[in-house]
Design goal:
Blueprint lengths: L15 H16 L1 E6 L6 H27 L13 H20 L8 H7 L10 H17 L15 E2 L10 E2 L7 E4 L18 E5 L2 H12 L3 H4 L2 E3 L3 H4 L3 H4 L4 H13 L2 E11 L2 E9 L8 H14 L4 H11 L3 H6 L7 E5 H5 L1 H7 L7 E4 L5 H7 L3 E4 H18 L5 H22 L13 H4 L7 E4 L1 H7 L7 H11 L1 H15 L1 H14 L2 H14 L7 E6 L12 E6 L3 H10 L2 E6 L5 H8 L8 E5 L9 E6 L18 H17 L2 E7 L2 H14 L1 H6 L3 E4 L7 H21 L7 E7 L3 H5 L9 E5 L9 H11 L5 H7 L4 H5 L3 H10 L3 H18 L10 E6 L21 H4 L3 E3 L3 H20 L1
Parallel strand pairs: 1-15, 1-16, 4-8, 5-9, 5-10, 6-9, 10-15, 17-22, 17-23, 18-20, 18-21, 19-20, 21-22
Antiparallel strand pairs: 2-3, 7-8, 11-14, 12-13, 13-14
Helix pairs in contact: 1-2, 11-12, 17-18, 17-22, 17-24, 22-24, 27-28, 32-36
Length: 914
């Protein structure tokens, strides 16, 4: 039996619930499998995770070292028999990896010959094929010039001959690359070796969260412990956050920044540096690579950057950017190069949960630890990463550029290339046809009939399964796997988009028009990538997701044009790729319950011995929180903020009267959460017209959450400064007209998810109604229907929701409600959980430490029903336990609630003075 773990790195005297949490996490890491650990916001969850997980890592490494030194005997290389299998595997894999590296070590030089051989950018001048190749290239170039009125050197856009491998597997397609001898590429200059070739993979912990600010908070907490200086830590972020190339940053959007960065990497200049002897008379031409980005040209600076990080200790994203600017080298690629030797990798959701991102970054999860924080919406976050969407405008651009490329190079393309390019044209035309209902005949083959495919329906929105979609477009006979392999191998995306950009730049007038369109739809390249992503989605299993067909809305509606979107519905297979590799996966959060939904959607087949759940209470005493379910307003009007009643003048004015009363009894800050920006605006305008707004502002200043996330920080700063200023003034003067501020916020916005309202910033949280998602959201209804059908046979699932679908897809909210009402089990539960998770996230923003206090008002009669008559799905049964245990339902007159609030703040004001 193992000794009871201790956590000496915890920088303060831990509370009992923190010790319980750390022990539960430590045990989970020792056992492996999946664990869900719930600790309310404000209980020091992040610090507890750090001190427990990293203590486990230190203990494991000590044990591993001890086993290696003492337990191995001649003829037995596997260590002690009581060593866990996963640890033996880790050692074995490590040894195998080192042995594999030695095998792959080149017999000559210091570079990587395989990589250089594929570059195609440098040739051995002594190659017997060199002269012949030069002649052919010259002829091709002359033919191109003769065939075009404008003298263009279009040779660079011509694709290499492609063998499709009809008789072989999909992976058999190859470009015929002309290997003119051997070439070694040295990306670091003449004298520099591959610095990372001897790096050994460390046993590591991957910590991920949803936002960069949450990751920065993790690093900040890490620095409070000894681990922040003793362990190798690396923070990963997006290009948009880490890029220091000002010319690239000017592009603004993440998509454009990513594309420009990749383009600069492709613009690497290979310069011949010297001839290197191979022995026995052979010689090899060696080059050094100079990146197109000035922040990556000096490889010595990149090496120095890595060295600086190891000396500085734990650095967050901002620290990496400052260091990169000071040294003049790229922090994005610099941080990526440290991954192999790091013990703690701090990274956003996307980088870890997306398979393509993991592969791109070279993340190795095998036998390592994965900790996912803020995991309350993990299932939806995970599957949304695998959605794919292309707009009608992007499709038109892709179609026209492929057509333009084929017309230009038709006579110079081999049969393989021609066949695949024509296939791409067939698919883009079919996609456009389904969006335009066959109206644009110039883009559509006359043999197809979209109206017939849809049985004459002309609804604006509809959905289909993958196979139904492919059959309706008559493209089910196309091998998409082989087509995607061709796209990857042939580099056609860059060839076509590169040629398209060149032509557009030569046609000045057209270029101006394109620039206007690109600001809305993105570049040519981003359109192609969206197209390829959608093709990739169509290779999923038929039941894994749905295709949404959204046709162009009337211009008067102000909505976007048409689009095709693949919506992933199942996350089980995606998540299993992580679970099967990692030794342990920890899902942590402030509110994870109900856990059954997460288990059902992500790991339904997991055996009980591989799953662990732990939940702890809050650190604050009972008298520090007052949750009240309020059914009536000051004038006696019952609160009903359901969809059909919330927009009535009476309801909005009653809410305004409630605020008029609250500002007289609640000190400092009040945060009011609405279901949407539209409804918040509607209420604000109503208060302004009725004079209620003016009455409220006599006691408290009003601030509103901006729609743009970039403006949130400024509003919060003003809100906090106003509260601090008025609080200080009130302490000096007894009669001051204003006593704080009100912040009108939106559920699901930035303020509800990532902002902490400690102390005076959140003395009272007001939740207006039950913020259910809109029933007119077709993607939401597809998820609800899928979850309702989990465990149900396909035949019964397909007929279950036939009623009302047509109405819904034309945008009828009532039909959406009809579908929701037809759900009796998991789908209904999921829809309710979506609502209450956002409620719990919002109201949990207030209590942030043991001395904090706040009131929470749940304003709607549905919260305040008789406890004895509540069903299991009642809203208050989905509240966090520490709030539910103290909830006071006020079903009578408002005066009772006002008295409770007065006593609560009076008591806590006295406690604060002691």
């Amino acid at each position: 039996m193992e000794d009871e773990p201790t956590f000496p790195a915890f920088p303060f005297e831990p509370y009992s619930i923190q010790i319980d949490f750390m022990k539960a996490l430590y045990r989970s890491l020792s056992k492996g499998g999946i664990s869900m650990l719930e600790s309310p916001t404000g209980t020091g969850k992040t610090l507890s995770i750090i001190c427990s997980a990293l203590q486990w890592l230190v203990d494991r490494k000590h044990r591993l070292k001890s086993e290696a030194n003492h337990a191995q005997t001649p003829g037995d290389g596997n260590g002690s028999d009581d060593e866990p299998d996963w640890m033996k595997n880790f050692v074995a894999n490590k040894d195998a990896a080192v042995e594999e590296k030695m095998k792959k070590k080149p017999m000559f030089g210091k570079g990587k010959p395989d990589k250089g051989r594929n570059q195609g950018s440098c040739r051995n001048l002594l190659s017997p094929n060199f002269v012949e190749e030069g002649i052919h290239e010259k002829k091709d170039s002359e033919n191109l010039r003769e065939n075009n009125g404008v003298e263009l050197n279009d040779e660079e856009f011509l694709m290499e001959e492609y063998e499709s491998g009809e008789e072989e597997d999909a992976g058999a397609g190859k470009s015929k690359r002309k290997a003119g001898g051997v070439c070694i590429n040295s990306s670091s200059g003449e004298e520099e070796e591959d610095d990372n070739k001897d790096d050994e993979e460390e046993l590591k912990i991957y910590f991920c969260s949803r936002t960069h600010s949450q990751l920065s908070q993790f690093v900040k907490e890490l620095r409070k412990t000894v681990f922040g200086h003793e362990m190798k830590v690396v923070s990963l972020g997006s290009r948009k956050i880490l890029c220091i190339n000002e010319e690239v940053l000017k592009l603004g959007s993440s998509t454009h920044i990513n594309e420009r960065c990749l383009e600069l990497q492709q613009n690497t200049k290979n310069e011949v540096s010297k001839l290197k002897n191979l022995g026995s008379g052979g010689r090899i031409r060696r080059t050094k690579a100079s990146s197109g980005c000035p922040m990556l040209r000096n490889k010595k600076l990149q090496k120095q950057f890595r060295s600086e990080i190891s000396q500085e200790g734990a650095l967050d994203i901002e620290d990496l950017v400052h260091l990169g600017r000071r040294m003049g080298t790229c922090p994005y690629y610099g941080s990526r190069s440290i991954i192999p030797t790091a013990e703690i990798v701090v990274l956003p959701y996307q980088s870890l949960l997306s398979k393509s991102s993991r592969e791109s970054l070279g993340l190795n999860l095998k036998n390592n630890i994965v900790i996912i924080d803020e995991a309350h919406n993990l299932a939806d976050s995970l599957i949304s990463m695998y959605d794919a969407k292309i707009t009608s405008s992007q499709l038109e651009h892709v179609n026209s550029h492929i057509k333009q490329y084929l017309e230009r190079f038709r006579n110079f393309l081999g049969p393989g290339n021609r066949r695949y390019i024509q296939t791409l044209l067939v698919i883009t035309r079919a996609f456009l046809q389904i969006l335009f209902n066959g109206k644009d005949t110039s883009l559509v083959d006359p043999g197809h009939d979209a109206e017939k495919a849809f049985g004459g329906k002309t609804a604006l929105d509809s959905s289909m399964a993958i196979n139904e979609f492919l059959f309706s477009l008559n493209i089910d006979n196309i091998n998409l796997v082989k087509l995607l392999h061709y796209i990857k191998e042939s580099n056609i995306i860059h060839k076509v988009s590169g040629y398209g950009n060149k032509v557009a730049n030569l046609q000045k007038v057209s270029a101006l028009n394109d620039s206007r369109e690109s600001s809305e739809e993105g570049s040519i390249l981003s359109g192609f990538r969206a197209f390829v992503d959608l093709l990739l989605s169509l290779t999923n299993n038929d039941g894994d997701g749905r295709i949404i067909i959204s046709r162009e809305k009337p211009a008067s509606s102000g909505q976007e044009g048409g689009y095709l979107k693949y919506v992933m519905l199942t996350g089980e297979k995606i998540f299993s790729e992580i679970v099967d590799q990692a030794h342990a996966v920890i899902l942590a959060g402030g509110t994870l319950q109900p856990i059954e939904e997460t288990k059902e959607r992500l790991f339904p087949q997991l055996t009980p011995d591989r799953f662990h759940f732990f939940s702890c209470s809050h650190i604050i005493p009972p008298e520090s929180i007052l949750p009240v379910a309020l059914s009536h307003g000051p004038s006696g009007q019952s609160f009903d903020f359901s969809y059909s009643s919330r927009s009535s003048i009476i309801m909005m004015e009653e809410l305004g009267l409630l605020l008029c009363n609250l500002v007289t009894v609640v000190p400092e800050g009040i945060v009011v959460f609405f279901s949407s920006f539209d409804y918040e605006g509607q209420v604000y305008d109503s208060w302004k017209a009725s004079g209620i707004l003016e009455r409220i502002m006599k006691k408290k200043c009003i601030f509103r959450e901006p729609r743009k996330n970039t403006d949130v920080e400024f509003v919060l700063k003003e809100y906090k400064e106003t509260i601090d200023k008025l609080s200080n003034t009130n302490q000096k003067e007894d009669h001051v007209p204003q006593n704080g501020a009100i912040l009108l916020a939106v559920v699901g916005g930035k303020i509800s998810e990532g902002i902490n309202f400690s102390d005076g910033m959140g003395r009272c949280i007001v939740m207006v109604g039950l913020p259910y998602p809109s029933p007119s959201d077709i993607e939401l209804l597809e998820r609800v229907k899928h979850i309702e059908g989990l465990g149900v046979s396909n035949s019964s699932r397909s007929t279950k929701f036939s009623v009302g679908d047509e109405q819904h897809y034309s945008g009828d909210v009532r039909a959406g409600f009809a579908i929701l009402r037809s759900c009796k089990h998991r789908g209904k539960e999921y829809y309710e959980n979506l609502c209450m998770k956002t409620v719990n996230q919002s109201i949990g923003r207030a209590i942030r430490h043991i001395n904090d206090y706040a009131a929470i008002l749940l304003v709607d009669e549905r919260y305040a029903s008789d406890p004895s008559k509540r069903s299991l799905s009642h809203p208050t049964n989905k509240l966090p336990q520490w709030i539910k245990d103290r909830l006071v339902p006020v079903t009578g007159k408002y005066g009772e609630a006002h008295r409770l609030l007065h006593q609560f703040f009076k008591l806590n004001k006295k406690r604060g003075r002691r």
